[in-house]
Amino acid sequence: MSQKLLKFAAWACLCAIAYSTLSPLRDRPILLTSSNLEHLAAFALLGMVFCLAYPHRTLSVLTIVFGSAALLELLQLLTPDRHARILDALQKVAGGAAGVLAGNAVLRFDRVRFWLLRDPTPGPCPEIRSKPVPHHASRAIDKAAKIAHRTNLHD
Question: Where are the domains positioned within the chain?
């Protein structure tokens, strides 16, 4: 999946969570029967998508996920019909941590799969010789092989 699409999905997921967290109670979308399960699932999805979108920035992802859980819970104090609870914040943090853990597991599995499916047979070796080479020619061949190896690395 494209990194740009994953980044868009991660930020769109955060916006959707912010809307459903801060909107008036009558406008809040209800997806599951239990609000506790909704908190956990929403932030697990958020953590996983952010982890996949930013694979080498786990600390930043944790900061965004945990920070948004705490900030959104505090911002509920500013809405007239919503209220902040420590239990809700803890559920959101636990869901976010589970999502980041799942995202890291997916990334590691992908790396392991790539490592397992790579071709283990090496390419042709330029140092295989069928008959002895004179000493002065051997240095020239070794120098040519080193140059060829360097250019293959930079292609």
Answer: 3-117
Provide the CB-side half-sphere exposure for 48 (13 A, CA).
13
Q: CB within 8 A of 82, min separation 6: which ones? A: 21, 22, 24, 25, 76
Inform me whether the pLDDT recorded for 155 exceeds 50.
no
pLDDT (tens digit per residue) in 45-101:
999 999 988 888 889 999 999 999 899 888 888 777 777 788 888 888 899 999 999
Element spanning 140, H or E: helix 135-154
DSSP letter string over 47-58?
HHHHHHHSTT-H
CA angle, 6 as apex, 87 and 92 as ends, to 5°? 0
Structure tokens at 33: 């029967």
